Amino acid sequence: MCKEPNPDDVNSREYERSFGALSEILPMVELLQSSESQNPPRVWETFLVFLVFYTAWVCPYEFGFLNEPTVPLAITDNVVNAFFAIDIVLTFFVAYLDKGTYLLVDQPKFIAFRYAKTWLAFDVISTIPSELARSILPRPLKTYGYFNMLRLWRLRRVSAMFARLEKDRNYNYFWVRCSKLICVTLFSVHFAACFFYFLAVNHDKKTTWLSLPNDDNQKNLWNLYVTSMYWSIVTLSTVGYGDLHPMNTREMVFDIIFMLFNLGLTSYLIGNMTNLVVHGTSRTRRYRDTVAAATGFAHRNQLPIRLQEQMLAHLFMKYRTDLEGLQQQEIIESLPKAIRSSISYADIDRLCFYFNYVDKGDGWAAESSSDGGKSNELKRVTLSCLEKGEHVGKLVLVPNSIQELLDIGAKKFGISATKVLTTDGAEIDDINLIRDGDHIVIA
Question: Is the whole-model pTM more than 0.70?
Answer without folding.
Answer: no
